[in-house]
Amino acid sequence: MNDATIRHPGQRPPAGLNDLSVLPVFFKLTGKRVLVAGGSDAAAWKAELLAACGAQTYVYAENIGSKLKDLSSRTQLVHLIPRAVIDADFVDVALAIGDFEHSEEIEAFRAMARKAGVICNVIDKPQQSDFQFGSLVERSPLVIAISTDGAAPVFGQALRMRLETLLPDGLRHWAQAAKNWRPKIGALNLDFHARRKVWEIFAKRALAHPETKPGDEDFASMLAALEQPDLTTGTGHVALVGAGPGDPELLTLKAVRALQSADVVLFDDLVAPGVVDMARREALRVSVGKRGYKPSCTQEDIISLLLDHAKAGRRVVRLKGGDPSIFGRAGEEIAALQQAGISVEIIPGVTSASAAAASLKRSLTERETARRVQMITAHARNGQLPDDLDWRALADRKATTIVYMGVRTLQALADRLCAEGLDPNTPAVIIERASWPEERHIRSTIAKLPQAAEAAAIQSPSLVMIGHALRDPQDEQA
Ligand code: SAH
Hints:
Elements: E1 33-37, H1 41-52, E2 56-60, H2 66-74, E3 78-81, E4 95-98, H3 103-116, E5 119-122, E6 135-139, E7 142-146, H4 153-166, H5 171-186, H6 192-208, H7 216-226, E8 237-242, H8 253-260, E9 264-267, H9 273-276, E10 284-287, H10 299-311, E11 315-320, H11 330-339, E12 343-347, H12 352-360, E13 372-377, H13 391-394, E14 399-404, H14 410-419, E15 427-432, E16 440-445, H15 449-455, E17 462-466, H16 473-477
Parallel strand pairs: 1-2, 1-4, 2-3, 4-5, 8-11, 8-12, 9-10, 9-11, 13-14
Antiparallel strand pairs: 6-7, 14-17, 15-16, 15-17
Helix pairs in contact: 1-2, 5-6, 6-7, 10-11
S-adenosyl-L-homocysteine (SAH) binds next to β17.
């Protein structure tokens, strides 16, 4: 193995297994005979699941419900027998499932199964079951099942939902392609390492392009990639990804997926650790923070890192705080990458202004009082207020103004705004670390905000927000 990105140096096989509450196994049921005792809707759902696995499903119940009748009219795999189950029904059965109310019925069912050596499940009675069903994420032939050992099925379902959002539906096509290609790859008589490499290339591609249906050309280029000295799967790729304001829950699904398929993640200071943690375990993580105003990693350094990794064929995620298109110097990075012929994709993020508005429970626009939103930075290269701000626009009483990087120059900004005609009593808020656990905010007026922010020792990253849309309705009641 010559590619360090494939096996993380710290990743060793576990020294020993923790105790397991259950053993997850995946049971092949095609053509096997299975038994369902009970005529309820719950029994029908299990019969449907078993039939979906290709099992010959025999359902025994004195009263057969309409769901089961409907199911047996749709599939020839479900057979309805309108009587109670008896010993003889358990012959040659792979597994048995029962739905019963009363403990005597459960005991009788379990005794019959045990006698015939058939493992059984009693629906909603994990204590009386030999095996349980998990919550399913179905991308068949790829199947994921989750168990909480009966402790909290709703928790299991919530986890299932989380996985559903993370795993694109197209993965089923990749799993199917793997099935189709397996014999062809076997026929190549590759040695162990080469075979493993092919499947590693396959996995990398599937995770990088889950939505694209794999075709013959993928198969051919996978084999071609075998000839290359490293695991490069074609040319590199850079995604400029909005990391959002801090709270990892505010990442987009696209951002999470990009992080999960990245080889390298370059991230800024502003990016919360919880967001970087979403990256694939094997991904190389590089902090390219500019540390306040003392450049430790210049924009040129960042661009050359991006180019180097992409030219080496890696999938690079460039994580930028908030949205990449807002005061993130994204334009320079996009231009440099395009000039070098590297494919670049932008994944938008939640800008800190949106997170701040959400925290304050305010709308940035209001029909009468806030017709426009303007985003500015109050920090020029020399650390002073920029000298080309449009003061007339900033003094507009019907606008909401969001000031990025505005802590240092807040006093100068407030003085100048009031001098340019903005009412000194205009509501203004400063919000520090919006959406982080340690978020703080101070509500005031534009004239008084600088002093209040200083008294509270407000630090960067903070946003200054000015305008009548930010008025706290409780002030009006007072
Ligand atoms: N692209 C980012 C902005 C980068 S400029 C975005 O869309 O949010 C950096 C400035 O953004 C900081 O100085 C601060 O003014 C603001 N900022 C970023 N994250 C913030 C947060 N969580 N809370 C408050 N302000 C934030």
